[in-house]
Amino acid sequence: MKIELHEISVREIAENYVDSQEEGVIGYNGKLNIRPKYRREFVYDETKRNAVIDTIRKGFPLNVMYWVKNNDGTFEVLDGQQRTISFCQYVTNCFSILVNGNPKAFMNLTPNEKKQILDYKVMVYFCEGNDDEKLSWFETINIAGEKLTEQELRNATYTGPWLTHAKSIFSKTNCPAYLLS
Asked: What pTM was computed for the model?
């Protein structure tokens, strides 16, 4: 597997960010599939989501992210979906954070505060390889953080319309199967 490190700004990643729910989440000016069909939905709670923004505001490093480079020059997020959606939602004014006890939406920040967030550099590894190499890497990098279930790992192998439909019934929060427990 070929792996190259790149620095990409929040501004670039959030460019033309669109969250179409089940139809997909894209960014990086349409070149990044932030939530490929085999990935789970957004699971960060408010505390984790806000911690991503606080990390960026303070200029601390976020954990490295991994993108798979596709044959057509586009990318898929292999690792970093939760963090990416968090900062993309913030810069597109989907939520506010508390700053010194006061709620602050991105649109209410000063020009310098906005610039500091948008210019923040995210460390991203571009990964290229065959499907077996990508799956192996996906399993390796997901041993920490929000632990993946065995089914989520299998979902990374078997994609398609059937899986998308099955996830809507069995894997999403508040789905019919979830409500049975």
From this structure: 0.76
